[in-house]
Write a structure and sequence with these properties.
Layout (H helix, E strand, L loop, with lengths): L1 H6 L4 H6 L3 E5 L8 E5 L6 H5 L14 H4 L6 E2 L6 E2 L1 E6 L6 E5 L5 E5 L13
Amino acid sequence: RNKQVLLGLSNEDLYNVLVPVTKTSYSSSHPEETTSSDILFLPSEFEIFGKITNSSAAEGSQYSYYQCGNRRVKLLYSTQENGIWWTRSASAGDSRNYCFIGVGGDSGIAVSYYWHGIPFCFCV
């Protein structure tokens, strides 16, 4: 029940069907693979594009949602304009930087203290 409150899920039926998934991450400062089991997660650069552009390693497999050409652009709730959003992928070159998806749907990197959107994903 505490997880349900933490996640802000008031719909118990939805909460009961969420399935934890194991996700892989890498960091340029710690090149070994890290895994975690999460109910909510951020997609990796590889899961979105199916290739490595700015991250240090392939983290997962490309989601079919993106593979078939669906938009990578996300709207900001507050303005309803295209926004920049974070992935969970660390930059290959600097441990302070993470990959993001820009307003045009392209991949980029930025220092992790910038305010960008967080598009949580989940599996049922």
